[in-house]
Amino acid sequence: MEKIFVAQRVGSKLIATENAIDNAMIEAAGLMADMLQARKDLNLSVISGDKAHSKLVQAMALMAEARTAMVDAHNELGELKLRLGVRTKLVGIEHDDKNIDVPTGSQRRLREVG
User: How far is CA 57 from CA 49, 68, 110, in A?
Assistant: First the structure.
């Protein structure tokens, strides 16, 4: 299999993983907001649910660490890609024609960014 297609496959999984972590952080932040609003709506003491809030903050901190680790992994893979002589864009293969079909399941189209 050609290096470029292997790099494309790994890159797609990397981006999907990064998006999953971001989405988990978004959901956790929404959960925190809903928990705080629920306490307020029910006129509960600030003590109510304090341990749950603390655990959620702890989980969010771990998600932030995971996100930082994924950014580091992304950078490492970017360096490896260059050492292998593969030149790809964020969502596809670099090519002179900016509207070529990308060989993925989603059949995305490349476009120039920036």
Answer: 12, 17, 39
- Whether this prediction's pTM lies above 0.90 is answered by no
Q: Three-class SS of residue 2?
A: coil
Query: What b/e readout covers 36-52, taking b as 16+ CB neighbours within 10 angstroms?
Result: eeebeeeeeeeeebeee
Cβ–Cβ under 8 Å, residues 40 and 79:
no
Cα Rg, the chain, nearest whole Å: 20
Q: Which residue stretches of the chain are H helix?
A: 3-41, 50-83
Amino acid at 76: E
Please write the tens of the pLDDT for every residue from 19-43.
Answer: 999 999 999 999 999 999 999 999 9
List CB contacts of 3: < 8 A, sequence separation 6 or more: 84, 85, 86
Q: Please, which residues have CB within 8 angstroms of residue 73's CB and are 6 or more apart in sequence?
A: 14
89 forms bridges with which residues in the sheet? 92
Which residue is it, tokens 């709506």? 41
